[in-house]
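Journal club prep — side note

Before the paper discussion, L.F. wants everyone to see what a predicted structure for a comparable chain looks like in token form. Sequence:
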Amino acid sequence: MAAFDPWDPAFVADPYPAYAELRARGRVHYYEPSDQWLVPHHADVSALLRDRRLGRTYLHRFGHEEFGRTPPPPEHEPFHVLNDHGMLDLEPPDHTRIRRLVSKAFTPRTVESLRPYVERLAGELVSGLVAAGGGDLLTDVAEPLPVAVIAEMLGIPEADRALLRPWSADICGMYELNPAEETARRAVRASVEFSDYLRDLIAERREHPGDDLISGLIAAHDEGDRLTEQEMISTAVLLLNAGHEATVNATVNGWWALLRDPGQLAALRADHSLVPSAVEELMRFDTPLQLFERWVLDEIEIDGTTIPRGAEIAMLFGSANHDPEVFAAPETLDITRRDNPHISFSAGIHYCIGAPLARIELAASMRALLEQAPTLTLAAEPERKPNFVIRGLKALRVEVA
């Protein structure tokens, strides 16, 4: 287990050799520093994401003490109230009800109607990068695109959008393994400020509804069911956080991979019809969300190892996406890969509701960069963020000749 160290910068920079070691050593491993069972194989991860003996929460069936867990500190309550009312951290029947209602406002037609806006904005952002002769691909293109898109969907005024990314970053810090108390304090503060902001926005939309997603969430109902105000707030925050954190990291991780592989980059530049398969391959090759957790609600067995109720399983998405049992030559970037059942968007009832939008955004920014910046080159070796679970770069500086 020495190779797996999510707090080691060298591991975070390249976790894939350690994953290969984990896969070779077995199907499940207990990892004491985070008190979790690590699952590295694609078949197991895929099956466990669909296994109803596991859950994102246990509170629909057990109290903290009954489940053998310590309740979170009272001072963390604002974060947990916000987090625990979102779809991602609920189980049926609440998850079923909320996802059904949110789906009424987040339809394929709604998402597809955003395509022209996404493509126009991606083009404008890349134009600015080109005009400047280059810059930071993260702050100039990768970040502003998904933040603006989800804010546009939600109906957040343009003047307020600069608030969103810092709130999101502080909240997402709590999803790392064993977060520090200072991380928790920032997450609590961001949770309070973001919730207060959205509560005011919801009140305004109740009085003056529009054609935005907030108005749609207010109006969504099914057989008398409606979303509570807290559920609307938690849903909006979830859509923003999940709707751009992964997209930002997928963009910069993907371009960093391409810039290190001149042959694949040349093939993509020569044939822009490869963009859809390139998006899928880059999400597989350097997965933005490396780890996803589940609680064991009922005892399970993996390869002869019994994992008791109350334990926590950490499914290693990055490892699963490099499993040679599923992917031919998994350590090779192949933008023409056709058989690509990566699990970067999860699976089962918690499959990412925003996956279609993420694909539109990733393809739009990639096409804009291929068309407008065909001479894009790396300007400086990038530095990785210290985060492992939501894994990305601090910056990706590029030049356009």
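L.F.'s comment for the group: The two ends are 46 Å apart (CA to CA). Keep this in mind when we get to the figures.
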